Amino acid sequence: MTDGRILLATQNPGKVREIRRAFRGQSLKIIGLEDVLPGLSHRERGKTFSANARAKSLYYSRRWGGLTLAEDSGLEIEALDGAPGIRSARFSGPKPSDEKNNRKVLRLLREVPAGERKARFVCVMVLAKKGRVVREFRGEVRGRIGLAPQGASGFGYDPLFYYPPLRRTFAELPPEVKNAVSHRGRAVLKLRAFLEAEKKAPPGGLPGRAAARR
């Protein structure tokens, strides 16, 4: 099925850390772009998380022979009509940062009461090989936006995203706890289940499953 490695097609170090952590104890090794395709980058042009993840996975899988995993994810806030959405990483402008993005969200929600600050994190992962989509996986988690940043762990909008079942923001949770409930963690669980099933399939099963299913 694979040589034991999956290329993780992302430049985001936070995502790399989380996905590698989620694969601890597994036989598969997650490798980064700098390990096999240094200096190569792909510009996101899609209008949905799925479109961006598919484009990235196909782009890099045509340049590397093994399995390629790409993901796109972001925060959708109900009171902002789904923004920042696919623009989550660059929400604050041409020179964005996590801090600037969080400040902009809080500014836009300044007059919105706590009960109307519903939000969700969405993650779409796409596994591809040699220019063909193998499978798509989706994970999401619902919560609300806090009134101020809380916590020092995680990255991105984690200090603002309050998760009611645990009464903490994602930035207040230990990494292993966050991974168990997060959008990315839920997508990874589906990915791992698929890969485990493929291990038990007859030889050659993976390349034939080109149709993406969530």
Quick synopsis:
The protein is built from six helices and seven strands; from the N terminus they run βαβααβαββββαα. With 214 residues, the chain is of the alpha/beta class.
Characterization of the model:
The protein contains six helices and seven strands. Helix 5 packs across helix 6. It has helices at residues 13-22, 33-36, 49-61, 98-108, 175-181, 183-199; strands at residues 5-8, 29-32, 67-77, 118-129, 132-145, 161-163, 168-169. The protein is of the alpha/beta class and 214 residues long. The chain has a seven-stranded mixed sheet. Helix content is 29%, strand content 23%. It has a single domain, classed as Maf protein (Alpha-Beta Complex), CATH 3.90.950.
Keywords:
single chain, Maf protein, disordered C terminus
List the helices and strands and how they pair.
Blueprint: E1 5-8, H1 13-22, E2 29-32, H2 33-36, H3 49-61, E3 67-77, H4 98-108, E4 118-129, E5 132-145, E6 161-163, E7 168-169, H5 175-181, H6 183-199
Parallel strand pairs: 1-2, 1-3
Antiparallel strand pairs: 3-4, 4-5, 5-6, 6-7
Indicate the radius of gyration in whole angstroms: 18 Å
Structurally, the number of domains stands at 1
Structural class: alpha/beta
Give the integer mean of the pLDDT values.
90
The percentage helix is 25-40%
Query: Could you state the order of secondary-structure elements as H and E?
Result: EHEHHEHEEEEHH
Class, according to the CATH hierarchy? Alpha Beta
Share in β-strands = 15-25%
Strand order of the largest sheet: 2-1-3-4-5-6-7
Number of helices: 6
Assembly classification: single chain
Query: Terminal Cα separation, in Å?
Result: 20 Å
Second CATH tier, the architecture: Alpha-Beta Complex
CATH topology: Maf protein
Largest β sheet strand count, sense and barrel closure: 7 strands, mixed
Please count the beta strands (DSSP E, at least 2 residues each): 7
Shape type: globular
Residue windows where pLDDT falls under 50 for at least 5 positions: 208-214
